[in-house]
Amino acid sequence: MKSQATTTQEPATQSNLCCNGDQGNAGRGACTCGPPICFERPNYFCGQLLSDADLSSEQSYVREKLKLYHRTLNGHGIVCGLRITCDPECCGSIRIGDGYAIDNCGNDLIVCEPAHFDVIAALRAKNWLIAEDPCDPCEKEHQPRCKVKQCFYVTICYAEEQSDFTTPFKTNCGPGAAVCEPTRTKETVTFDILRCPPKPRNYLDEIEERIACCWKVFTDGPLGKRLQEFFHEHSEIFEGKGREDRDYCQIFCQLKVLFQHHLKRCPSLYDCTFWEQVCRLECPEQRRGDYEVYQEAFCKLFALIRRYAFECILGEMIFRCPSPCEAVCVGLGTVEVEDDKLLRVCNCPRKYVWTLANFSEVFLATFVGGAACAPHERAKIAEPHGQQQEEIEIPPSRKERKNRGECGCCASFDFDCRQFIDLFRSRPNFGTLAASAPIHAIRELIESLKAGFDFTDPLAFSPEIFKNMTVQEAESLAQKLGGERALRIIRQPEHYQAMDPVTAILNQLLKKPGDPMVAYSRDNKIVEVIPEPSPGEIIPPIDYQTKTQNLEAQLTTMQGEITRLREEITALARRLSARRPPSTRQGEQA
Fold first, then answer.
1. Which residues pair with 487 in a beta bridge?
2. What confidence tens digit (pLDDT) does each residue in 555-571 have?
3. In this structure, are residues 136 and 129 in contact, taking their beta carbons and an 8 Å threshold?
4. Rounded distance, CA 325 to CA 323, Å?
């Protein structure tokens, strides 16, 4: 497998002012992926004279369909293998293991046998190495060399090679020998070194940009600026106030005209009568002191503008087929170079192709193997320096770097010697247990789901059997299955409360006799059954009506108790007054 350095350019982007409609490949230059094609396959028949165009059309039909399947159904990234390691036999080179990847055009990137890539030679060819000139050997004392660590990114790119040349048969009588033509096209790969990791298509970023673009009708352009001025300076009419020196009808007409101007460039794609609806908007006649009459006109205009933005956003949710114009290489990992010497290699950052066949492997490689990378960028903060603000760079914490998803040089692993000694004494394989924790979690999840849905178990039953039963029937069946405490019935509130995803999964797991469950009833009918939540896990829905009734009953009881206490206090005061001497009572009366 040959390896050579290539120059990779990121795909150019074209802004779409209207935020809707396909961008296409117009104005983007020559496409290395090839333009989208309408498929047409050749039709062969007996006695047909075949040409090279017929056979080439057959190959193009198959290849382009496979590429279309790849980039739309599978995605792009590493499928398996392609691990990079240091090459112990050649200093400054790395070894790329065999494997398979797909680029964003849908091309297959296959390394059939381990390949070698000279990183230092590629960096020297690009003049990217930073190294101090060697010291003069004639000098007796040598100053210490200044070293700068650099991080670069290794990528794999699709390439083709022509081979097996031969002289074609010619029927014409032209002078000179025929030019040799290749009879084979080898699909191969090349390796490249980049300063920044490749940035392939990211649908989440694209849809976020398109959503923000749809809302620009409120924030950017003449209409957006005029709306912001209106809400800052003229919004008093929505409070029933106004100023006599302002012509609100004129302001309304300005906003309406600006919106119509926007619709001329970017008409509504989802309401065929939208322009007529905007044209029918009118401002009422000027009324001195009665400013509330303008609220309805302004609100109708704002409602149409908001509906226009919402329809644009909903339309952008209908994603388009990916048709990239420029091929983007697939990243394999990071290399560290210092003073013209290759130091370390780490297999990140990487983007994998997620499929059912490699889900577990990709899950571990993405969320666990990604810890081998450290962020490349540094956080910038503003620190006061006299009367000016000076930006200084500080290294972000490990947690901040992971949250930002930044990747740079290979990670440095923290070490606590005392804790290491304590853990090793208690369990020498503590590192294996920690690294295998996600594997155990996946395995336990699979086993628990198998057991939870094993309908062949003679004692297993679905909690759905309690639905639509009366409360008495459900209690009777629950006692037969698992005792009195197997089913706890709570009255369901009148309003519907949707379950969270975890509860929805647990709700469908099969139960066995004795498993505690909670049933919700309404009108003496069982409407829902879920597992009995453990303390601190799942909080059942609050029965507000029953809770209100209990509080009212408690309040009535307390009021009765207060009345009883008052009566007892009054009776006790009478008895004490009757026991006092007559002279004392007369003195108190005087």
1. 517
2. 888 888 888 888 888 88
3. no
4. 7
